[in-house]
Amino acid sequence: MFIYPPSFEQLRKRIGNRIETEEEFKKRIELAITEIELANNSVLFTNRLVNDTLDKAVDQFFTLIEALYFQEINNFKKHGSLNAPPEKNDE
Q1: In whole angstroms, what is the distance from residue 82 CA to residue 91 CA?
Q2: Residues 12, 22: contact at Cβ < 8 Å?
Q3: What distance lies between CA 33 and its chain's CA centroid?
Q4: SS3 call for 24
Q5: Smallest Cα–Cα separation from 68: which of 90, 89, 47?
Q6: How many whole angstroms separate alpha carbon 53 and alpha carbon 47?
Q7: Higher per-residue confidence, 88 vs 20
C-alpha cells in the first residue's frame, strides 16, 4: 500500500512544517517525488490511499484491510489456501 499526500502543495506544507533548513527541505521534497514516481510505476503498490484528513485516511485504511481480509478468507474457502490465484473466467 502506498499512501499519497492529497496534493503537491500539501506535501510541501507538511514537509515544511517538519524540516528546519532549506537544504533538508529540498532533499526531502526530492525524495518524496522519487517515492511517488516509483509507486506510480510499481506493480507492488496495487492499493493506494490518499492521506487528506487523518480520520478519512484511517477509515479508508481499515476498509481496505477488511476487504483484503475477506478476499483471503474467500480464497481459503474456495482453494484451501491463502493467496490462491484468482479463478479464470473461461468465457
Answers
A1: 26
A2: no
A3: 15
A4: helix
A5: 47
A6: 18
A7: 20
Distance, in Å, from the CA atom of 40 to the CA atom of 35, rounded to the nearest integer, reads: 9
If you search the block for the grid coordinates 478519512, which residue do you land on? 56
- Dmax (CA) for the chain in angstroms is 60
Domain ranges in the chain are 1-51, 53-82
> Can you give the pLDDT at residue 85?
60
Phi, psi of 83 (to 5 degrees): 60, 30
Grid coordinates in use for 46?
A: 496495487
CA dist., res. 6 & res. 25, Å (int): 19
Length of the chain: 91
Q: Which residue has the cell 500500500?
A: 1
